Amino acid sequence: MSRLNIKFLCVIYFTCYIFIKLDGTEYAIFLLSFFFSFLAPLITEYDKHLGELNGQLKYYQKQVGEMKLQLENVIKENERLHSELKDAVEKQLEAFPLGTEIGTDTYADDETVRNLQEQLQLANEEKAQAVELWQTVSQELDRLHKLYQEHMTEAQIHVFESQKQKDQLFDFQQLTQQLHVTNENMEVAGGADRMGKCRGLRTARKLRSHRRDQKWHDKQYKKAHLGIALKVNPFGGASHAKEIVLEKTNQQFLKTVTEQSVMIEQLRKKLRQAKLELRVAVAKVEELTNATEDLQGQMKKKEKDVVSAHGREEASDRRLQQLQSSIKQLEIRLCVTIQEANQLRTENTHLEKQTRELQAKCNELEKERYEAIVRARNSMQLLEEAHLQKSQALLEEKQKEEDIEKMKETVSRFVQDATIRTKKEVANTKKQCNIQISQLTEELSALQMECAEKQGQIERVIKEKKAVEEELEKIYREGRGNESDYRKLEEMHQRFLVSERSKDDLQIRLTRAENRIKQLEIDSSEEISRYQEMIQKIQNVLESERENCGLVSEQRLKLQQENKQLRKETESLRKIALEAQKKAKLKISTMEHEFSVKERGFEVQLREMEDSNRNSIVELRHLLETQQKAANRWKEETKKLTESAEIRINNLKSELSRQKLHTQELLSQLEMANEKVVENEKLILEHREKANRLQRRLSQAEERAASASQQHNLEHLKAFQPKCGEKTGIRSCWKPGFPDICTSGWLWEVRVTRVWKFFT
């Protein structure tokens, strides 16, 4: 817009200059007045436009500064959060035991992996948001740079045009000086015209008095001398027409002189206004040059700031890459630890299988022992039968009385031995039952302890569940709209599900332990009842044996040899059983010691892991809270930035629409001005034609006046030639000032024609 206006003004100025050089001052003065009347609003509008551009530049500079500060804060927060994450993960990895394996480790590992994945996702999202912000800032900087370049080009054009205007002003000053000189000449010519007018009036009076005298002399001459009626003097009509023409020309000349004086005064005022406006324009141009220099300095500073921001962004990208590499290393370490944990789990399963096999072997040994006891009992029965047979044989050989006494002695001895043996066997069985009962009671106490611990864990889980439900209710009461609350709800829901799962697992374990306790109680009661039945059977057997002592005594002799053999076999079996028992006891003791050591180590590691998990959970909660706060703050900032950007876009759209309307108005004004210029050119052509016509008429009137004056002089000379002593009278009538009057009128007409030519 400003370029078109300045070009249009330059065209008008050069047309003024051409018309001043070629035609004259009147049309040039009109064009100059039009030029200065059109220049003032354009300069004010250009100043307003420059002020708006400067305000926009300052606003954008402020926004760029704010965005830089926000970017620096975001980069610092990202660095701090990444450093905290790195430290927390390193602490967790350092605290993570390599040789541990617990049922809950998988759950903790899954939770840590999930938390790390969520943190990685959040970090990637933050990086994406930071990259988007950087892209938007870079786009705004590019746009500002383009605006600055456009403004610089416009400023350079304005400076160049201001230099042109200065040159044109210098030319215009020269032209004004020339116009002043012409105006002075015109004033001098106006004074001469006034003097000529006064002289013309005097000559007109003299001509009238001369005509009256001439008429009176003619009448006297006709009456006195000739009595001849003379014709009308043609000189009188010509002089009268000449006087009428001169009066009209004098009136027109006075009108033109007054109009030109008024126009000259107006032009002087406009020249003064134009000088003032030019001075103001020069001052504004200087201010604009200073403003452009300041803007150049500010843009250089901005470019330096942009370069530093790029450097910082590159440093932040490097730090992000380093953090990503460290996170990858930590993931690799996690994978390695997970593999080691899996290996430990496999080893644990293998050890559990070995323990099961050993338990099966122990059960088999117990079964073999029981079978050996049964065989020993059978052998004892066989021995008793052999003793009875032997006693019977001895009774057959010896006397019945001796046999009876011997049988009594043997029966008493056998009964004593049987009672002792039965007592020993009952004591052994009681000891075994007591040992088993003590073991069962220990297992019951351990299971009860485990049940109590699991019940405590269940109560803790229930308390945590209640706390989570209360937190969920609080969060639901506080509000459901925020994304951070939604994330908290999801996390609390996950924790709730995990706690419910752990509760279900613990309940299942409790039920299993209770079932196991019940089974052990049932087994112990069954074993007690079985042992009681065995004792009753043994007592019945003793009674039956007491009854059948007589029969057994006969077979005793036969079975002594078999008894010896069976004793040898039993001794060998006892030795084998004792060796197996010793080996089993050693293995069981070693396994129990190993299991106790492992259990202690696992308990210590469990406690350490629980402490580390608690600390990590607290740290992760703190980190999540900080990240949520930062995310909320970034959301608010993004909302504010979007609102400001929308407001700015709407303002720019309104400014664009306003500028479009303004450009349309200026184009319509340009069209009107062009139409006015065309009309003025037409009027100028018409005025030129009229001036040419008037000049032709003047030249024709001058020629006619010259010819009429010549004819009048000739006729006057012919009519007033001296006759018979009338020479002195004619000369007295013919005053010596008459030819001077004619010559002065002719000179006045010549001056009028010169002035008219000068103005045309």
Describe this structure in words.
This protein folds into two domains: 312 residues, no CATH class; 264 residues, Helix Hairpins (Orthogonal Bundle). The protein is built from nine helices and no strands. It is rod-shaped. The C terminus is likely disordered.
* Gross morphology: rod-shaped
Gyration radius over CA: 69 Å
Order of helices and strands: HHHHHHHHH
Uncertain segments: 97-105, 192-201, 225-239, 720-752, 754-760
Mean pLDDT: 68
The strand count comes to 0
Q: Report the portion of residues in β strands.
A: under 5%
Quote the distance from N terminus to C terminus. 38 Å
Q: How many independent structural domains?
A: 2
Specify the structural class.
mainly alpha
Count up the helices.
9
Largest β sheet strand count, sense and barrel closure: none
Helicity range: over 70%
Summary of the model, kept short:
This protein is mainly α and 760 residues long. It has 9 helices and no strands. Helix 1 (2-22) packs parallel to helix 3, helix 4 packs antiparallel against helix 7 and helix 5 (400-478) runs antiparallel to helix 6 (483-547).
